[in-house]
Amino acid sequence: MATLVGKVALVTGASRGVGKGIALGLAEQGATVYVTGRTTTGAAPPTPLPGTVEETAAEVTALGGRGVAIACDHRDDEQTRAAVRRVVDEAGRIDVLVNNVWGGYEYFWDGTPFWEEAGFWTQPLERWDSAFQAGVRAHYVTTVAAAPTMVTAGSGLIVNVSSEGAEKTETGVAYGAAKAATDHMIACMAHELRDHGVTAVSLYPGLVRTESVLRAAEFIDLTDSESPLFVGRAVAALATDPNVIHHTGQVLRTSTLAQHYHFTDPHPR
Fold it and tell me: What is the chain's pLDDT, residue by residue, as a tens digit (269 residues)?
């Protein structure tokens, strides 16, 4: 039985990958899901990876939810604010906000041989700027724009998609620092939002079989990997938990949530 019918979610960076998987996980429970992305049908794609924001919205609807696509480049604060305004104007509420959009991955598709960026001192400063602008700042600006609606409602769930890279030293300086920043940001937000009934958490997926990861499958051990929809089911489980506030301020892992909420990966490796 769908448990998110009548609920409204906004998932950023959902043209493909983890963001798309989260949108579909919420769709399985009947939610209305607004999805943002830079890749739109009929326009020149910003990356060589497949998927558009309209395709994700259509799949959300096909799964039993209602998908709405919003073209948005979250590096532009006004586009971000406009996206949130559209959701509030059309739906009147935001029950779930998933900050998934991220930056700093350009070396995967801009033709840079990875061995030429073997140390942080060899990387262009734009790698750092992209991770913080399209990632940390985008998460902050989106949440600032969405929080008033949630505070007024006295409820809501905010999820920052993060990574164990925040806790490790071998994942790159810019990436690790940006992920650690988004984790601490969510903890501080949770402190201020708790009294208003709004939950804020960081979510660590495992290795996810995104389009980008599958392009490099011959170089990666995918034995214990997760499907994007598995991550989506983790978010949906949180969104349907009436006591989700007990998690606020925490870093949560998809594998742990699966054991706690008893959901499975529909596409296990």
Answer: 579 999 999 999 999 999 999 999 999 999 999 999 999 998 888 888 899 999 999 999 999 999 999 999 999 999 999 999 999 999 999 999 999 999 877 666 566 665 567 889 988 899 899 999 999 999 999 999 999 999 999 999 999 999 998 999 988 899 999 999 999 999 999 999 999 999 999 999 999 999 888 877 778 888 889 999 999 999 999 999 999 999 999 999 999 999 999 999 998 88
Q: What are phi and psi of 146, to 5 degrees?
A: -90, -25
Pick the catalytic residue from 34, 175, 204, 261. 175
Instruction: Give whole-number Cα distances, 149 to 70, 88, 190, 250, in Å.
Output: 19, 8, 16, 22
Q: Which CATH number fits domain 8-261: 1.20.272.10, 3.30.1360.120, 3.30.930.10, 3.40.50.720?
A: 3.40.50.720
- Using an 8 Å Cβ cutoff, are 156 and 150 in contact? yes
Give the burial class of 240: count Cβ atoms within 10 A of its Cβ; 0-12 exposed, 13-18 middle, 19 or more buried: middle
Say which residues have a Cβ less than 8 Å from residue 24's Cβ, sequence separation at least 6: 56, 59, 60, 63, 228, 229, 232
- What CA–CA distance (Å, rounded) separates 51 from 104? 19
Q: Annotated catalytic, 175?
A: yes
